[in-house]
Amino acid sequence: MASFDTTRRLVGALDAARTFRRQSAGLLALLLACAAWILSSADTPEPFAGLLLAVAACALVIELGLALAARRQEAACADELILSGFGCESTRTPVERAVARRASWLERPRTRHRLAKHLRWRLKLAEGSLGISPGYMRTSVHPPLARYERSALLVNYTLIREMADRLERGPTDPRALVLLWSVVLAPPSLDRGAVGRAAGEELASRIRLARRIVDRDRETPVSPYPLVVDAGADGAADAT
Are 72 and 119 in a shared domain? Predict the structure, then answer.
């Protein structure tokens, strides 16, 4: 049964995203009106117009950032519901539509190909075959993997390669896709002690669970999630 807390957080994220979109549209209209006023003025525009334009621009940037954060929260909550086995028998409620959109985005061929590419890149990072310099790693958003995490990826090297190939061949259970995206998006741990060891064990468990789901999906290819095609759905997880 889906977690009530996750459902409640998803509803809050949907409401917040809708509010931020409306506010962004209003600020954009104000921004365009101020710009048109300044450009159409024959004389030197009033300082107030320039100040209002600057304030509206700053507020719009903030609103867009908040909207992006709400979309990421929406995607995270939808992923939790997918992992919990939340089934979308219909798309009557906002929660069902949000989960169906997320599952549809995960199942898109383009998304699956990108995930397979990220998985292979992660393996190359673990085996040290990328030839990345230490200076690059210090400035990169992808710091070196902790020893335990590198070990977890190398031990499951064959499984990950097989799953990457499987993703490119056809649809996969959305639960496995959520787990595999968490493998490539989770920041590596820099702790080489107990925290790093726990991170490595948790990473290995996610990989093995994804493989079990993929194997069951191969035996029973019919997905329990009726997907809704939404051409406008983006990768919040790119976000996602």
Answer: no
